[in-house]
Amino acid sequence: MNEQSIEAQGEGEDFIRFLALDYYLFKFSDSPLYFWLGSGIPSISELGRVNTYAMDVLKFYRADIGIFGYYSLFGIIGTLPFIFYIWKFLKNWNYIDLWFKLFFIMKLILIVFDFWGNWNVGMMAYVIFLYMLELNIQKNKGQRVKT
Q1: pTM given for the model
Q2: Closest Cα partner for 118 from 57, 61, 44?
Q3: Domain spans of the chain?
């Protein structure tokens, strides 16, 4: 059983995540709109059949490549809100409590493998985190103005 799981995951230069990343970034579509809009939701887009082939035959899954898999679905336009979140976080770094900073760093490290945008539950957690972050920034900015 262990040999089968190692073979399915790949190792060495055949590491499956790198192969999936290469496939979804460079080989999945040659349309000029792919960069901007991605392939769209697989069940309703024409590229859905190509994605089914990638999953069934090649064993490439978008969830395995984190934010790049999300980019493959929704392009740079769909990925911009997450890039904006990173920019906003860095811009307000001095007003953010330590535990938010540590969580942010952890999420940046994992963003390539475990991207919260790929799942509905992850999106809800993301929204709640952004709300709490905004409250924290406003609280800390208010405390600095009073002092």
Answers
A1: 0.79
A2: 61
A3: 2-146
pLDDT tens for residues 96-147?
999 999 999 998 888 888 888 788 888 898 889 999 999 999 999 988 776 5
Instruction: Give per-residue pLDDT as tens, 24-55.
Output: 999 998 888 999 999 887 777 778 778 888 88
